[in-house]
Input
Amino acid sequence: QWGSYFGGSAWEYDPKRGEYYFHQFSKKQPDLNWENPEVRKAVYKMMNWWMDRGIDGFRMDVITLISKKVDKNGRLPGEEGSEIADLPVGEEGYSNPNPFCADGPRQDEFLAEMRHEVFDGREGFLTVGEAPGITPARNEHITDPENGELDMLFLFEHLDADCEDNTKWKPTKLELPKLKEILNGQQNAVSKAGWASLFFDNHDQPRIVSRWGDDSTKETRKASAKALALLLHMHRGTPYIYEGEELGMTNAHFTELDQYRDLESLNAYRQRVIETGVQDSESMMHGIAERSRDNARTPMQWDGSKYAGFTAPDAATEPWISVNPNHVEINAAAQCDDPESVHAFYKQLIDLRHRNPVVAAGDFQLLDESDRQVYSFVRALSSKDGQVAKRLLVMVNVSGEIARIPSETADLLSLDVDESHIVITTHDSAHTKLSLTKRELAPWEGVAIEL
Output
């Protein structure tokens, strides 16, 4: 019995056809049979229709789940007569279909065919695929322009770094060395070919300032939002900013189950608590509060009015999900003209990527991989003759405590750091200069300096 990621069986009976159909997600989202060439033609026809209307490309949902692993007779694992054994049933009463659905044997073939049928002969477009089950090495192959598949992929391993037993609903404290190891692997895989997508937030993830930062006070929220932003944006690749991330929007902090709308969260509670009892109600509610997708789906906080500017204050109907109460303090209107705001800092990061070639295209080298507070690395850009022309040292204290700059990183610092060498900092330059002189970083302090 294969399970859906949104709870229950992944098979749904259709009385009109007298057959079952497969859905990895909602039963309203049947998996298409990409083995059928007529299905693929229909998909490409739809994509060309949109491209002809002038769109700039596609973000492709779970595109790496389109090729299924079947036996030589086309039978799925566990199907009667199949030569491929099914997986064991998990604690919730279902098997996980991911090993048979992720990065299947015809994945490259389908993506190359799509490129040919939709994008060949066109210019000025972008293709980015959501890529569960894809390794960094496979990311290199798929995003290498020579292979004619996709421009970028979203990998997810780094967002599983704080889950007990790889279970979403059992959140744990982030171990920074583990995050470094994962992101370093992603960076190294595309050092010679391919490209990386950089993201912490999206519509399926909790807010990063609540997840890995500290949203307990105004000061720590603002500081940790900037620190995490600098950390992400200084890696090599293309950063993606999810709505409200540039304001430091936080998790919803709901306390009651009926406040949630997310199908995944509600079904998970029913299945894990009510039907199987594999998790008690208190710990499950904690897990949902920390990890529910609804944390990213509360209305965008444009201003401090009743519905945060998402809906008119005197509207007859409320938004489909509650507005986060902290919208009175955290909103675009309050930050757009504030030079010290999270929003202003994101603008600095974007500007830096546009005008600094080292940030845009430099190589990546991780430092002090075992340090549990400071995440540091070097970005370097070589000249045409192979000599290193410019280098940036990035240091971020990913904690609420003062951190000593670890040895490998400290060895690269001059004894007297000049403020003119500070490219960007989460604090003011004078404060950061003093920190570096002491060989330490303040809580949630991040900086990039020229070497």
User: Anything to note?
Assistant: Residues 37-52 form the longest helix (16 residues). The mean pLDDT is 95. The CA atoms of residues 177 and 370 lie 5 Å apart. The chain has three domains: 1-31+68-102, 38-56+104-335, 362-450.
